[in-house]
Write the C-alpha cells for this entry.
Amino acid sequence: MRRFIHVRHSIWLFVIGCCGYATAQDSRPMIIPVESKQNAVVLQVDAKGQLSTIYFGTKLSNSATYQQIPATYQQTVDYSGVANAAYTAAGSKNLFEPAIAVVHADGNNGLDLRYVSHKTISRGPDVEETSILLKDPLYPFEVTLHYKVYKAADVIEQWSVIRHTEKGNVTLQKFASANLYLKASRYWLKQYHGDWVQEMQPEESQLTHGIKTLDSKLGTRANLFQPSVFMISLDQPATEDQGSVLYGSVEWSGNFRVDLELDNLDNLRIIAGINNYASPYILPANTAFETPPFLYTFSNKGKGDASRKLQRWARNYKILDGKGERFTLLNNWEATYFDFDEAKLKGLLKDTKELGVDLFLLDDGWFGNQFPRNSDHAALGDWQENRKKLPNGIAALDSMAQRNGVKFGIWIEPEMVSPQSELNAKHPDWVLRQPGREEHYFRHQLVLDLSNPKVQDFVFQIVDSLFIKAPKLSYIKWDCNAVIYNAWSAYQGKQSSQLYVEYVRGLYKVLARIRAKYPTVPMMLCSGGGGRVDYGALQYFTEYWPSDNTDPLERIFIQWENSYFYPAIASANHVTDWGKQSIKFRVDVAMMGKLGFDIVVKDLKEQERTFCKEALTNYSALKDVIWHGDQYRLADPHEGSVAAVMYLDEKQSSGVMFNYLVNYRYGEGSKLPIRLKGLDPCKRYQLKEINLYPEEVSTIPDNVTFAGDFLMTIGFNPQLNLKRTSVVIQINEAP
Ligand code: DGJ
C-alpha cells in the first residue's frame, strides 16, 4: 500500500507518474513510512528534496504521528543537515561516513542525491517493496533505494541500484547497500569473531563515538575471522526476552563492511554493504550496479523474539527448501580421511543402512589421476575419479547405494585449484595469481577466477557432470577452504580492482545455473568450518557447516550463537569422535539441527549402536518441530552451568527440550528449574525423557503432567548432574 503523510502546515501534493511512481510536486516535507507488522523505518523528504531517516523502531498505531517525532528531540546541532541522510553521498555537505562515494566521468567527486519519486509495489502475499529514486541535480547520476518488507516476518531487505548516463565511466569508490539511522540513549553492539574451530565467539560492548567497523577482506570464505551478522541493542543490552534490538547482516558471500558510527548528536549511523576495500568499481553509462541486500529485523521484546522472526523469515523466504525435508547422513571424512577405496566405501554404504540414516556422503579424496588426491596438497581442479581408488567411478557407488537402500552424496571444492593439478597446468590464466610475484597458498591451494565466464562454465560443468555420471546423486557438500591471496585476475586485467565484487557475482551466476537445472538437490555450504555462511549463499544451499569443531561441548556454544541468526534446519551437525563426551551427549547435541554422523560405525559398542538407532527413530518423530518449529533459548551456557534450548510447534502442542551440563565441577547440576517458553499457559503438557541408553531408566517420571503456566513460571528440572550431563525431554500436550 502506498502511503503519504501530510506534514503539519503543509499540503503535500503528489501525482502518480506513468511508471507508477509518486513524484514531488511542491517544496514541502513529505513522509514515507516503510512499515512491517510491528516496525517502521520512516523517511522524510524536505523542501530541498533531501531524503532523511526520521524514525527507526516500533511502528506507531497512527502513522500520521511520525511527523511529530523530529520535534521531540533536542540534541545538538546537525551542522550539515544530512547526518540522517537515508543514503549519505560523499562530496557535498556530508561530514560523516558516506554510503556512496564516486568519481564522475569528468573527475569531479561531488555527489548530491535528491528525492525524485517513490513507489510501493506488492511482491507477493505479505511482501511489499518500496523504491525511492534519488538523482544528482547536476550530473546524470541516480540511485534507487529499495526496501523489501516482509510484513509478518518483520524483516526488511534493503539494497541500492546505482546508474548514470555520463559521458564516460564513473568510478564507484563506496557503494553501500543501506544507511540506517537510529536514536537511543546508548547502543550496545553484539558482534562475533573467530577462527578455524573457534567460530562465532561473541563479544558485546557499548559503542563509543566514532566508527566501529565490522568487515572482511578475505574474498572467499569471508567469515573466517568475522561474520557480518551483528546485533545492536538500544538504551541497554537486550536480554533474551526483553529490550529493543536490531539484527543485521549483509547478504553477500565475499568482502563485507558494516560501519557503525556514533555521531555528534549521539545517534547511530549504520552503513552496510560490500566492502569497498581495494575495490573501486568502474561503472559504464547505462549499466546498473545493484548492491546485495542488507538484511535487518527489529524487536522490542528481546533477542529471542528477534531471532525467531529471522529464523521464520529464513525458512519461509530465503534458505533453499527452508520449509522442506533434509537427509540424515553418514559422512566418511573423519572415518577415513583420504585413505579409502571402493571396497572400504562398500562397507560404509552398508554401515549407512545399518545405522539407519538416509544417505552416504563421500568426502574429499575421490579424484585426481596424474596427481592423485591422497592429501590436501594436490588435485583440486581435476574432478575425474581416481582410477585406483574408484575403478568403477562414482556411477558404481551411486548404484551400490541404491542397492543398499540408501542415497549417495559427494564432496567437491569447485572454486579451488591445487598448484599440483592438471587444471593449473592447462589453464594458468584461470587462476587468481600475481604475475611475477611469489605465489601464496592457503591450505596449499589457489582460487579460481570466478569472474571469468569460462571458469564459471567449468565450475557449472563440475556439478553437471556429477549428475550425468550419477543421475541419482542426492547431495553435494560444497567446500571452500582458501581465502583470496594473490588478488589479480587475468580476465579482469586493468579492472582487477573489481575482482572481489565480480568473484562473488560469478559464484552466484554458477549457483543460479545449478539451481535452474537442479532446483532441489540438497547442498551443504562448507568452508573448513564456519568460514562461509550468509543469506546471499543460503538461497542456493539447504544447509551450512557451522564448524569443523564437533566436540559437542564446543558445539553447544557455536550452535547457540548461530541460532540467533540461522534456523536449526540449516545447521548441519555431525556426530564425530571429537570431545570426551558419551555418544549420547554427542547425538543429543547434533540433533539440535540437521543430524549427521562422521564416525566408524563398526567401532561403536553394541549398546551405543542400539542407542544411535533409537535416537534416529526419535529424531524422525521430532525433526519436524526442530526444523520448522519456533526455537526458544532457555538457559544460556555462557551464564551458568546449564544450557537448555527448546523447539515448539506452531500449535503449541508438541516440542522438545535439550538440556546439557556445561560445567563439570563438583556438585554441578540443574539446581534450579528451567523455565520453558512459548507454551499455551492454559494447556497441560506431558514431559518425557527420551534418548536413553537401552535398559536405562530415567530419573524423571513420565506420567506427570504440568500446566503450561507452571512450566513457564516455575519451570521444569531435567535433573542434570555429573552422571546425567545431557537430557532430552519430549513435550506433548496431555490428551
Ligand atoms: C574441510 C571440511 O570442513 C571438512 O569437513 C572436510 O570436508 C575437509 N574440508 C575435506 O578436505
User: Anything to note?
Assistant: The pocket of DGJ is lined by residues 333, 363-364, 376, 411, 479, 481, 526, 528-529, 545, 548 (CB under 6 Å). Residues 1-24 have pLDDT under 50 and may be disordered. The first strand starts at residue 5 and ends at 6.
